[in-house]
């Protein structure tokens, strides 16, 4: 019987409930025929990534406005980062964090229209082997605080592995662990009168892509900020964008779920959402929480 995939959390909860020392087998289904997830490899749980290249790319000399425009489209899909290419070779990545950091320091049109992607990209691109154990991959992602890696395909190309992709793994597992069993974390919030600069600062300081309007289910993500920047022609003739009120953004309602559902059920809900996060009465959960719990 498949007993679940949240290894550390599973041990903690059941040790307390049953007071036993025997470690439960953590199994993955169906492709590995019940193999312990700790020993499964990337190619065993995500084989489709090795057959056909799947990644969003941008040339290193492109301007930041191009990357921002692409992120508006891709942040709601399988990846939250663009792979930066030079001579058909991956040399870095750029995601919402890099754009927000640059915007926070240079909130002007020149940042988008004159700066090249290679000036803001993260050069620490994580390249992993298809033979790498899933547990090691998740631990590595947790250590570097980045839910992104590249794995080489059978034809020498690359595919991206992100927290959103790993939701597919969660769906295929069977566990009694419920959403309520995931430890609560600080919910990053803002007030109506707060500025966009405050929102960006909170996102960067707390390493989060979701900030909740206090005492409501309304939320803001980097994608919403980038959409507004695009509407403003990438801040052309705009000198005070960071001072603008958060109310100018198109806030959206979050999905509230019961904390009594299982983690695989939560993963299934997230995978079908444009903005992959859910809310309970006391917590905000994103695909990143799947990684931190697994690792």
Automatic annotation (TrEMBL):
<dbReference type="InterPro" id="IPR046342">
    <property type="entry name" value="CBS_dom_sf"/>
</dbReference>
<protein>
    <recommendedName>
        <fullName>CBS domain-containing protein</fullName>
    </recommendedName>
</protein>
């Amino acid at each position: 019987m498949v007993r679940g995939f949240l290894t550390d959390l599973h041990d903690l909860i059941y040790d307390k409930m049953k007071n036993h020392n025997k470690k439960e087998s953590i199994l993955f289904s169906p492709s590995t025929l019940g193999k312990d997830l700790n020993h499964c490899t990337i190619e065993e749980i995500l084989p489709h990534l090795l057959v056909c290249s799947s990644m969003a790319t941008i040339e290193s000399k492109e301007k930041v406005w191009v990357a921002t425009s692409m992120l508006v489209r891709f942040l709601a899909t399988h990846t939250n980062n663009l792979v930066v290419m030079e001579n058909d070779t991956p040399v870095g990545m750029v995601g919402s964090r890099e754009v927000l950091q640059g915007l926070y320091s240079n909130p002007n049109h020149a940042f988008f229209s004159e700066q090249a992607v290679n000036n803001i990209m993260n050069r620490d691109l994580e390249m992993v082997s298809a033979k790498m154990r899933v547990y090691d991959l998740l631990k590595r992602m947790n250590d570097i605080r980045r839910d992104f890696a590249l794995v080489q395909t059978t034809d020498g190309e690359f595919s991206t592995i992100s927290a959103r992709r790993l939701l597919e793994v969660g769906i295929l597992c069977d566990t009694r662990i419920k959403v309520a069993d995931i430890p609560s974390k600080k919910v990053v919030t803002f007030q109506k009168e707060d500025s966009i600069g405050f929102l960006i600062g909170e996102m960067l300081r707390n390493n989060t892509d979701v900030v909740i309007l206090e005492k409501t289910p309304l939320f803001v993500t980097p994608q919403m900020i980038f959409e507004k920047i695009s509407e403003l022609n990438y801040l052309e003739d705009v000198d005070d964008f960071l001072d603008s009120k958060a109310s100018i953004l198109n806030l959206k309602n979050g999905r509230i779920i019961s904390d009594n559902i299982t983690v695989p059920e939560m993963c299934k809900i997230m995978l079908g959402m444009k903005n992959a996060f859910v809310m309970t009465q006391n917590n905000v959960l994103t695909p990143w929480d799947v990684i931190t719990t697994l690792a």
